TrEMBL record:
Chain ranges of the Phosphatidic acid phosphatase type 2/haloperoxidase domain: 88-198
Keyword terms: Hydrolase, Membrane, Transmembrane, Transmembrane helix
Recorded superkingdom: Bacteria
Coiled coil (UniProt feature): none
Top-level enzyme category: hydrolase
Stored InterPro entries: PAP2/HPO (IPR000326), PAP2/HPO_sf (IPR036938)
Protein name: Putative undecaprenyl-diphosphatase YbjG
GO terms for MF: undecaprenyl-diphosphatase activity
EC number in record: 3.6.1.27
Species assigned in the record: Andreesenia angusta
């Protein structure tokens, strides 16, 4: 990563942090956007379909901790040389930071899940969405790792990671386990962790 790119990423990261904190203040603590959240959830859940439920449930399982552990194990087995090992370390750093920050913020905000909309039973607090945060943060990290090997497909990798994150966010709303603002906060938090992870990699180099 060039110095100019590092400065740009740092500025973007600061903006994302400000947005994340602001969103937390107006949702996680005050409930200011509750009416907005309820209207969006009502719209997302307006169509009751077994196919949609199955897809949403499958995305939830794939985006769970077990799914990311499997990816980490795969990268670890490929880490036969220094380059692949550094990729594994970057991925592991991103995954661990996503988990740690997500749990810390959930305990801080203690936002209750949308129980009136829930289609499955899930425990724990709601803000920010762990699945959405991991899908964005870890997904962008995987896109970054893949783009280092094939720079021509860089845009495709990042586009694919964002599409997957959007689908995961939709699935959490369709299942009624997160408010829309939880999803948005998860995206912001994941992007922040991604930028932090690649910045740490740059410092190590």
């Amino acid at each position: 990563m060039k110095i100019r790119e590092r400065v740009k990423y740092r500025e973007i990261g600061m903006l994302l942090i400000v947005l994340f904190i602001a969103l937390g203040l107006v949702t996680g603590r005050t409930g200011y956007l509750d009416s907005f959240d309820k209207s969006i959830l009502g719209y997302v859940q307006s169509g009751d379909s077994k196919v949609a439920f199955t897809i949403a449930r499958s995305l939830g399982i794939a985006g769970s901790a077990a799914g990311y552990v499997l990816i980490g194990v795969y990268l670890l087995f490929k880490a036969a040389d220094r380059k692949n090992y550094l990729d594994f370390k970057l991925y592991a750093t991103s995954a661990l930071l996503n988990t740690a920050f997500n749990q810390a913020f959930k305990l801080f905000y203690e936002r209750v899940r949308p129980l009136d909309f829930s289609r499955i039973e899930v425990s724990g607090y709601s803000f920010p969405s762990g699945h959405s945060m991991a899908a964005m943060g870890v997904g962008l990290t995987l896109a970054y790792i893949a783009s280092k090997r094939n720079r021509r497909a860089k845009k495709k990798y990042y586009a694919a990671s964002i599409v997957v994150a959007l689908l995961v966010g939709w699935s959490r709303m369709y299942l009624g386990v997160h408010w829309p603002t939880d999803i948005l906060a998860g995206y912001l938090g994941g992007a922040i962790v991604f930028l932090l992870s690649i910045n740490m990699e740059f410092k190590k180099k």
